[in-house]
Amino acid sequence: MPLIDLQATFGQIRANAFQWNPAIFIRHGICSNKTPFQLLEQHLASKFPNAIVDNRSYDWRDSVLVNGARLANLILKIVGDRPLVLIGHSMGGLLCRVANTIFQDPGLFDHLTSAGQHGYNRNDIVEIGNFGFRYAKKMPTPSLIAMLATPNSGAMLHGQISGIPALLKLAAHLFPPTNLESVKDLTTDRLFRFLEHFSVAGAGISISGSKGNRFARASGTISGWLGSKGIRINMPNDLVVEDQSVDLNSSILPNEITHFGKEKYLHARCYTDCTDVWHSNIYDDWNVRDLLVDCLQRC
To answer: Which residue segments constitute the domains of the chain, with CATH numbers given?
Structure first.
């Protein structure tokens, strides 16, 4: 993997960086739980021994909006005065984005939610209203938001739309995709239209993987194999999410981070020439872990 110039975006490594004491929240994606992220949790805890690392499961069947609000509510209860770091894989990265909008403008978030104009169900609206974000005395600003293989594009690419039901079919036979609030957020524009109202602070990095090597891309082998499975996807990709969608600079709809945001943002692909970084192993890739640690030393 070519060296990525983090200094140009995030500045130099801080003095005594490994003595930093952030609260680091790791959130998994759809059809998953905390277990696959325990190695990443342990790695970050070993690198930053003064940090709190929170890696826990949540109900991925619920909407991204309500899960993001639950994450924000949990953070407000336990983070205190510690610096805040949010790390999300796949849909978990969208949860982190939602939580950050709450931290930046809780009044607007409550207003837009209670207005009920974005297609979220009544139970979600009531639950979010009960958190009372607008009454919080102090809101944190994340030092870093890291999004791993997160489908950040405001206009979902075809491979993602067709790939999510296939993923669900393999992992969760009991839950028809069309009945899941989470899938509605991944395959429609309602969440991204909601996020358009915000401008957020906090440095951000998005990282995407790519399974197919340059020879497979040239010959169309991977694309052809995916097409036979009913999944049409562009290269480069990690067999679920395209690099173009992970990169917020390529977002078709404006977003709260690069279009309206106030802080620095960088997109990185592991690897530039492509190798075996799958959607389901990007958080275990040693390059990705080193990249996260390097960012945390600077942000």
So the answer is: 6-298 (3.40.50.1820)
